[in-house]
Each structure stands twice: as structure tokens, then as C-alpha cells.
Amino acid sequence: MREIADAVGVSVMTVSLALRGQPHVAAETRDRVLKMADKMGYRPDPALSALVAYRSVKATPKFHGLITYLNCTPYPNVEHTNQLHTDYFEGACERARELGYRLEPFWLNEPGMTSRRASQILSYKQVAGILVAPVHRLDVSIDLEWERFVSVSYGFSLAHPKLSAVSTHNFQCISLAMEKIVEYGYKRVGLVINKSQDKRKLGAWSGAYLMQQRNLIKAKDRIPILSIDDENLEHFEKWYKRYRPDAVLVGYTSVIDAFDKMGLRIGEDVGVVLAYTGTTHYDLAHVDHNNRIVGREAMNVLSGFIYHNEKGLPSHPVQTLVDGEWKDGYSLPDKR
Question: Average pLDDT over the chain, rounded to whole?
């Protein structure tokens, strides 16, 4: 780096900042440094890079800036709308503090707020990065001046723009649930999901179910997915009476009430597994989506993007997926 600095006529620190893509270096100077580095065959030493990273982790974190948790829902306190948002927000807050950032929520749907005004406010605050919380509908677009910001979204529900995202590994979660259900001795396994819910997960729930149905269940015992537009439980009752599953993988908790109305005893007449971590029914067998870890991991990804000054919309969005964990419950007794 010293040789590059001498050739370009700048300080070693300027070379270091330019090679890391830091915004403190003028674009013209950064381009000169990068061209000279390439011409001189500069390559970073991976051992020294690892040492620097180690020292950064061990050191007391300095304040690096403000992170915005962008709330696009109709509710001003997004972290209190349901357990998912609470876990994401608290996990991100925890990791932000460890990395030397402060996380603050910003409500995009405040009366009178426009995308342009929101962009101006966030720029004025000099936010280091934006975490986009899950949106409440699949047709939501956010038209911020994205070229000003470094951004990461939670999940894939945002219609536009397509940002790099961090999510639970939904395909793995359903695959794991199916493996456990069959392992516990159940032969006829059904899946009940909401159509929009599956779309939010890019079809991962239905796709994983169909794959595992083909891999684990005999053809004569395979049951079609019940995909419902709303929560009209009449469809569920007809489906259940027609196919008689001995275990049901449930995509949303209102279906739990349907078993009671039909006089079915969960865990005795039928096995039941929740496909996700709900805000209630923790005593049922379910897959824990590790939402707090997802919250932390989104902050890790964002901090990496900030370090490399990756502002604007990504040309090739990346996805980071966090595996879920199986949790036993009374609703799925082992029949072996």
C-alpha cells in the first residue's frame, strides 16, 4: 500500500480507505488508487485481513452510525405488531449494539409522509444503513431514493425494489417437519396453507412439501395441498373429511380452532404440526424459525455492505437463509 501511495501521491491511509471502498475518499482519487493497485498487482494478505477482523471483534466497538429499521406496515410500532417483528427488531438491535451502531425505527406510513420526504429525512440523519421490515401486503413498493442508502430486507414480501434479503430457510423448515412427521410413524400427511402466505415465501412451503411427499410417502397415501385464499374453514372441513390425514402440517393457527369445532382431539385423533413459530400454541409440535437469529444476521449482512459502501440497488441481490429447528409437542405423539 505504501508503494501505491507513493505512485499516486496520496497517503497510505487514503490508499487503505480507497481499497475498502470507503465513502470518505473522493471518487476520482479512489479510481486512481484502484487502477494503480491493479497495475502493480496488489492483492490483500488474507492472514492480515483475518487479524484485522479479529482485533475489530475483540475491541470495544466505537460508534459507527445510525441504522434505520424501516416500518412499512399500517402500524407505527412495527416491533409490537406480532412476535415475528418483535424478534427481528430485538435481534437486530442486539447485534447493532455489538457492532457499534444504534438502531431506530422509522414509520414510512406516517400521515403526510412521502417517499421523497422520507429520503430527505434519512439523508439528513446520515443513516449508515436501512433494514426493511416485512411488509403487510404482497403488492407494496417503496420508492425511496435508494442510491443514497445501503439496504437489506427481511424476507421476500416486498414487491419493489428487489433488495438483498435475510430470511428463515423456509424450504428447510418444511422439509424438516415432514421428515419428523414420517419418522414418528405417520403415513398420510396433509399441508394447509394460505396462498398469499406461500407466495411470501416464494413457494418454498408448497415446494418442500411436494418434494418430501414424493420422497417419503407412498403414492396411495399422498394428499393434495389445501391452499386457501382466506380463512374460510369450510374448505378445511371438506378437505379433511375427504382425505382423512393422520397428521396435518398447518400454515396458520386459525386452523387449530377448526379441529375443536369438528370434535377432533389434537394429538389423539390427529397429529398436528405448526409450520412456523407462532405467537401462541408453543406447546404444539412446531418448527422454530429462529427469528431473533434472523434479526441478528440481517444486521451482520448490512454491516458488511456498509463496510464496502454498497449503496443503491444491487444488480444481483443475494439471499442469506437461517435454518429452523424442530420442537416436539403434545400434538404429535411418537407412534412408533
Answer: 89
